[in-house]
Amino acid sequence: MAGPLQSHKIAILATDGFEYVELVRPRKALDDAGAKTSLVSPKTGRVRGWNFTDWGDELSVDVHLDHASADFDALLLPGGVINPDSLRMQPKAVAFVKSFFDAGKPVASICHGPWTIINADAARGRRMTSWPSLEIDLRNAGAQWVDEDAVTDQGLVTSRKPDDIPAFNRAMIDLFSRARQPAAAD
Question: Which residues are catalytic?
Fold first, then answer.
């Protein structure tokens, strides 16, 4: 039986310092829903996760950011503090995120992930949530910040923290499955 994301290709943009559970648990939910997920990174080889208070496990990079094309159907931006802070300072990463918004493709972001959305100039006019410390950043970028476990608005789903992952995953799969037709399967 095919899942709701059968034949969907989902990019997960991350670098060292991503919050491990905010990448691994949503990725598993996407894979279980039938999606083909690819970890895209400005690094080659492996990226190292953050496990709440210390460095965690590494994951293999599937596609280097220099070789990532626009043929993905949706984008997942995991949080952590280090990961999105690094990505938002890299023009290619910001351009990659912006390309999804420009193409009207759905994006899901949790915790500090919206920092990259701010730098892609895609927060303005959207209702969003995040880790509480980003409230002012999002308001200053023109977003309406709310304190909810998962918020979907204009092709974007955002969430606050690891405790919200079940609600985030449901909202992400719902949004991604309602998006335009998936790209052709490999």
Answer: 111-112
